[in-house]
From TrEMBL:
Domain Beta-lactamase-related: 21-324
Protein name per Swiss-Prot or TrEMBL: Serine hydrolase domain-containing protein
Molecular function, one GO term: hydrolase activity
InterPro entries for this protein: AmpC-like, Beta-lactam-related, Beta-lactam/transpept-like
PANTHER family: D-ALANYL-D-ALANINE CARBOXYPEPTIDASE, D-ALANYL-D-ALANINE-CARBOXYPEPTIDASE/ENDOPEPTIDASE AMPH
Pfam families: Beta-lactamase
Keyword Nucleotide-binding: no
Organism field: Streptomyces prasinosporus
Keyword terms, alphabetized: Hydrolase
UniProt KW Signal keyword: no
Length: 358
């Protein structure tokens, strides 16, 4: 257990409540947990569990981790900056930018991709064979075009714009779109437009590098009934949809800058935070609306709360902020010696609500 302590009774009480929430998450199966909380100008970090199974090494409070799908808000910011620059139009079709990429690209818009209403098959579903498949392919390089081709070979799952279905293929197409209109990769654009201006020195886009640089906890997957260390992997399988490695500090800085108007102009920020209606959203923990690369989140106090959740072999992350930045939370935990199941999911939801609403 690690805490940064603030000597004020109300903050101390909140900190203890969050510590208990982190401890419950470990009891539910996490190996190690980091919680960063900011409330009304005060902030603190708590950790629980261990950085490596079989050791007593504590989770580093500044530990790096794979943020997986929280890569998507970074990508969406780049796209919306390009919209402001007149280089991309949200309601133009994929075919008009990337002719021939998809057999039905004339029916899918950039907006559909960003908000997961494209109807594209999720290439990742063809990979959902954990264990042996992961061990065999963990260092394999994947080209974006090859992953998109898996989806392009399938029929649309619904008419674009009529339903919501979370789909990583969407963001691989967006990665190619960014390269088409800028001549540079999404890694270069995110680095120049977001990481460097905000001083996010602990955030990297690793490409094919399987390592996690800097201090970090190790993540595990249940394979053959045993926890297997899956910390190392080639993240090109996640690519533009989920490759980033970061810290709770850098994630907090990113979301604070986004909602403070430092990354997007008013019209583009409004586009990003205009959610699909709740009745369209299914199977997103806490999700009651999806904008462009970011979710509107249900919570105990009905706060105007936005963020994103994420999962990748060994690691799970949740980031959220109120629109006015008065309450923010960044949570990362490593999967331990149990599968991540309903009990752990509920422990995450309870923990986030404790941090933001207690």
């Amino acid at each position: 257990m690690t805490q940064t302590t603030i000597d004020r009774p109300e903050v101390s009480a909140l900190q203890q409540a969050v510590q208990q929430a982190a401890d419950r998450l470990v009891e539910a199966g996490a190996a190690g947990v980091q919680f960063r909380v900011a409330r009304d100008g005060d902030s603190f970090v708590v950790t629980s569990g261990v950085a490596e199974l079989g050791s007593d090494r504590p989770v580093p409070a500044d530990g790096r981790f794979r943020i997986s799908c929280i890569t998507k808000p970074f990508v969406a910011v780049v796209v919306l900056q390009l919209v402001a620059e007149g280089k991309i139009e949200l309601d133009r079709t994929v075919e008009s930018y990337l002719p021939g990429l998809l057999p039905y690209g004339d029916r899918i818009t950039v907006r559909n991709l960003l908000q997961h209403t494209s109807g594209l098959y999720n290439y990742a579903d063809s990979f959902q064979k954990p264990g042996d498949r992961f061990l065999r392919d963990r260092y394999k390089h994947y080209e974006p075009e090859d992953l998109i081709a898996i989806a392009a070979a399938k029929p649309l799952e619904f008419e674009p714009g009529t339903k919501f279905a979370y789909c990583n293929t969407n963001y691989f197409v967006i990665g190619l779109l960014i390269k088409k209109v800028t001549g540079r990769t999404h890694r270069e654009e995110i680095t120049e437009r977001i990481l460097q201006p905000l001083g996010l020195t602990e955030t990297v886009l690793p490409g094919d590098d399987p390592e996690i640089p800097g201090p970090h906890a190790r993540g595990y997957m249940q394979i053959g009934g045993e926890p297997v260390d899956v910390t190392l992997m080639n993240p090109s399988e996640a690519g533009c949809a989920g490759e980033i490695i970061s810290t709770t500090k850098d994630l907090d800085t990113f979301f604070a800058a986004l909602f403070d108007g430092k990354l997007l102009n008013g019209p583009e920020f409004t586009e990003m935070t205009t959610p699909l209606p709740p009745e369209m959203i299914e199977n997103l923990p806490m999700g009651i609306g999806y904008g462009l690369g970011i979710m509107k989140l249900e919570n105990d106090k009905k706060l105007d709360l936005w963020g994103h959740g994420a999962g990748i072999p060994g690691y799970a992350t949740f980031a959220a902020t109120t629109r006015d930045l008065s309450a923010r939370v960044q949570l990362s935990f490593t999967i331990g010696d149990k599968d991540f199941g309903p009990e752990a999911e509920q422990a995450v939801i309870r923990g986030v609500n404790t941090a933001l609403c207690a």
